[in-house]
Structures are given as structure tokens and as C-alpha cells.
Amino acid sequence: MKRKFLAFCLPLGAFLCVAGCTTMAPKYSQPAAPVPAAWPEGPAYKGDTTQKAQKPVADIPWQEFFVDPQMRKVIALALENNRDLRVATLNIERSRAQYQIRRSDLFPKVDATAAGNRQRLSGGAFGSNPAITIEQYSAGLGVSSYELDLFGRVRSLKDQALEQYLATEQARASVQISLVSQVAISYLTLAADSERLTLAKDTLANQQDSYKLTRSRYEAGVSSALDLNQAQTSVDAARVDIGRYTTLVAQDENALHLVVGSNVEAGLLPANLTETLTSLKDLAPGLPSDVLLHRPDILQAENLLKGFNANIGAARAAFFPRITLTGSIGTGSGELSGLFAPGSLIWSFAPRITLPIFAGGSNLANLKVSEVDRDIAVAQYEKAIQTAFREVADALAQQGTIDEQVAAQQSLTDATSQSYNLSLARYDKGVDSYLNVLDSQRSLYGSQQNLISARLSRLANLVTLYKVLGGGSK
Asked: CATH number, domain at 48?
């Protein structure tokens, strides 16, 4: 019995030893980055943009970057409830399972079988032969349709599934980076609009006090009807802004609820902009090669490229013979009690080879498709690098000038505030008309609103720069 068992196993083992571990896929070579070796320079950029950061931005966790406790709670809530991130996580599980399926094809699938058959055969015509009952029982182990991967077809498909799985992991990291940035921007936008609403309400209160004073002066015959009507227009303009910013605040809250994936408690909502939202005021980008090639979206594009490269190996292997093995070993007997008796061993071994001769050009077309898919993936990989380079360059350009813009806007606001106070004093003394007061007030109000916008742009730029440099995935 042992000799017969070895007679079955040795051919199978020989074939398994022949099956190689290589594939026919082209050797992968990372495409050169189609971008300059340094970031742009010029008046819009601050200092030396090639300065290497002491710590890569991608290694700064978002909990370390965002120090405002309310914002950190909102971001944590989004990471727990956001549906896009949840889908990205589930895609990882799906791709992992698909990879395990492909990987299992590299190994024989062994099944245990047990069968019994009882059949009665009738006798001959007119009872010439007696009826008989036939019994047959068997039990054994079998290998069904195991492909010897001599030319790496199965292994290429396994490599493609592995790269797809790795790509989904990078995709999830990209989704998390975008989510952290989106939550921060939505939070800042809500804070800015809330501050604008507060400013509009304060302006309305001041304008109402001014209107009451002007009305009293008008009734006393000191001010004209024109002054009174001008005061009324400033009150109405402030009321319009209150309605507009009230709507914007409500819409900002709805947007924040959506990106977080659940309602945000009122206690976590910002009332105004604060300059202590982040721990860093300046981010050193480092060299493009240090940043771009480690961004999750670019790593995802490269994983997909490697997967298409592996598909070429599978397409090439289709031109060569495919060898499959089917075999089984076990025992058989006409009686259940003799199933494991001496001499009951049964076995079968059925190798099969399939050699493609004529397929109507389908194999050649499949190879062409896989090669074109690889070339498309190369172009998409290069485009991802170019897009990332542009995103970082744009953020650096704004970073280089935003502080000057905020400082200039602050100086302008201070100057218009003094002009408003002077014009109001001159009006109270009867030197100027109320029209000058109204113009000064409008200039001050506009400057204050623009200052809020400038501060929002500075904070949003810092968040954007953190995002495009790969921060937020940890």
C-alpha cells in the first residue's frame, strides 16, 4: 500500500518542484518624476523652500498639529463616523479577501470525500437471472484541477491582487488626510462666518444708537432729513448682513455635520476665529522627492501601476501550456465493513495539459490590453505627481505672502477705525455732514470683514499646506 501511495505522490511532487516561483511580468522600474527637483522660487515664495524640515510633515500626527481642543474633538468624531472613510476601510477588507483568494490558488486544494452507493439490478426476462443488489463504498482524499504555475500566470494574478490591496490601504490614508483637512476648513469657515455675524450684530447695535441720536437731533432741528435717512440706510444695511450671515452660519453647520457624519454638539462649535488652532505657524516643505513620492495618493497610483505590470505577466503566460492535476487516493469496498480492509486501496492520477493553438487572436489582444493598461497607469502616476507638485507650490506661494496681507489688512483696519472716530467727532461738532460719518463707518465695517477673511485665509493655508505635504494620515 505504501508503494502505491508513493507512486501517486512522487509524480505530483515532481511537478510541484518543477513549478517555478518567477513570473513573466516585465521587471518593474519606477518612472522618473516629471517635475522639477526643487520647489518654485520668486517674489511669492518665502525664504528657502528647499530647506529640509526637522521632522517630515507626514510624520506629524493630526493630534499634534491641531492643538485646539474643540477642533480635535470634532476631527476625532469625523474619523469615527464619516461614511467616506468607512467605505475606504471596508474596501481594504474586500481587497484583502480578494488577495487571499488569489494567493490560495498557488496551493493545491485537498478535499476529503466519502460516498456510498446501493443499487438493485433487475433479473433477466421472465426471471432467467435473479435480481441482485450492488453496494459500493469509498472514502479518500483528492486534489481537483490544481494548476502547476510553470509560467507564473497564477503568481502574476496574485501579485496584481496584492498591489490592489496595498492601493486600497493608501486610498484610505488619502481619504483620512482629506477628511482631516476638510473638517478643519469647515470648522474655520464656520468660525469666520460666526465672527462676521457677531460683527454685523455689533454694527447694527451701533447704527441703531446712532440712528436714535440722529433722530433726536433731527427732531431738535439740528440735523437734516438727509442725515436721518442716511442713518436709516446704515441700519438697514446691517440688518441685511445679519440675515445673510445667519444663513451662512446655518449652512456652515450643516456642512460640518455632513463631513463629520453626525451632529456636532453646540459646545464644540466655534464662536470666532482663534490664532491658536495649530501648533506650527510655518511648515518647511523639504525637497519634492522627499514629499511627493511618499504621499498616499501617489503611492496608491504606483501600487495600481505595479498591479497592471503584473497583469502583463498573466497575459504572456496565456500563450504557453497550462498543466492541471486531478488526483485522489483512498479506499473502496463493496461492503461498508471492508472499507479499510487490506487490498481496498484505490487511487487515480489524471494530469492534463492544454496547449493554445488557435484563439482567434484573443490572447494577443489581451496582452495588448494589459500593456496599454500599464502605459495608462504610468501616465496617471506621472499626472498624480504633477498635480501634487502644483498643490504644494500653490500653498507655498500663498504662505509666502499671506502674513504680509494680514498685517496690511490689520493696519488698514486700524487706520479706518481712527478715521471713523475722527469723522464722528467732527460730525458731533457740526464740522462735517453725516455722509462722511457714513462713508467712514462703511469703510471700517468692510475692513473688519476683510480682516476676518485674511485671517481665515492664513489659517486655511496652513491646513492646506499640512494636507498637501502628506500630514493627517496618522
From this structure: 1.20.1600.10
